[in-house]
């Protein structure tokens, strides 16, 4: 049984009957869109050191995680219900290792020229990159913890520019 959103609702994925649907974007103008997201995976110091030295038995973890992030960003519409398929024009993924606490930070910066934003693609890229790191390192550290996956900034479209305040 569906429930209709209230008059003050800003949810856009509901039709007049209160049912979930893919939002029509045909009337929205094409504009340059950008989104940046980040997340981290905490781990034992020894795991972080093995990542730094590229001595994890499964190969170059960060190279594989970067490719996984790019593939996930391109497939977001297949993973997230109601997300629109987008033709991404740029996907940049970077990893930064940090000592305190021992963790690996992942940042993704995505761009497209389209009728809807790339926030979900950026968040998906970061999430899948971190899950890939977990998968490739779990034999040496099952206690890793993925944390703080969040949008940092978005620009373009009707809602304009937004940046997370630190």
TrEMBL record:
Molybdopterin cofactor biosynthesis C (MoaC) domain mapped to chain residues: 22-157
CDD domains: MoaC_PE
InterPro entries, per database record: MoaC, MoaC_bact/euk, MoaC_sf, MoCo_biosynth_MoaA/MoaC, Mopterin_CF_biosynth-C_dom
Active-site annotation: 135
Source species, domain of life: Bacteria
Residues holding substrate: 82-84, 120-121
Keywords in alphabetical order: Lyase, Molybdenum cofactor biosynthesis
Listed Pfam families: MoaC (PF01967)
GO biological process: Mo-molybdopterin cofactor biosynthetic process
Catalytic activity of the protein: (8S)-3',8-cyclo-7,8-dihydroguanosine 5'-triphosphate = cyclic pyranopterin phosphate + diphosphate
Keyword Lipid metabolism found: no
Listed HAMAP family: MoaC_B (MF_01224_B)
Role: Catalyzes the conversion of (8S)-3',8-cyclo-7,8-dihydroguanosine 5'-triphosphate to cyclic pyranopterin monophosphate (cPMP).
Assembly mode: Homohexamer; trimer of dimers.
Record-stated family: Belongs to the MoaC family.
Name listed for the protein in its UniProt record: Cyclic pyranopterin monophosphate synthase
Native source organism of the sequence: Acidithiobacillus caldus (strain SM-1)
Name of encoding gene: moaC
């Amino acid at each position: 049984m569906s429930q209709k959103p209230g008059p003050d609702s800003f949810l856009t994925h509901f039709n007049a009957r209160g049912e979930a649907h893919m939002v029509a974007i045909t009337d929205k103008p094409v504009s340059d869109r950008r989104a940046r997201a980040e997340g981290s995976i905490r781990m034992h110091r020894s795991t972080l050191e093995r990542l730094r030295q590229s001595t994890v038995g499964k190969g170059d973890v960060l190279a594989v995680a970067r490719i996984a992030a790019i593939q996930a960003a391109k497939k977001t519409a297949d993973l997230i219900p109601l997300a629109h398929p987008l033709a991404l024009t740029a996907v940049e993924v970077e990893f930064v290792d940090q000592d305190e606490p021992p963790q690996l930070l992942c940042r993704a910066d995505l761009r497209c020229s389209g009728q809807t934003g790339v926030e979900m693609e950026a968040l998906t890229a970061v999430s899948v990159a971190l899950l890939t790191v977990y998968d490739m390192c779990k034999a040496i550290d099952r206690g890793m913890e993925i944390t703080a996956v969040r949008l940092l900034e978005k620009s373009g479209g009707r809602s304009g520019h937004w940046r997370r305040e630190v």
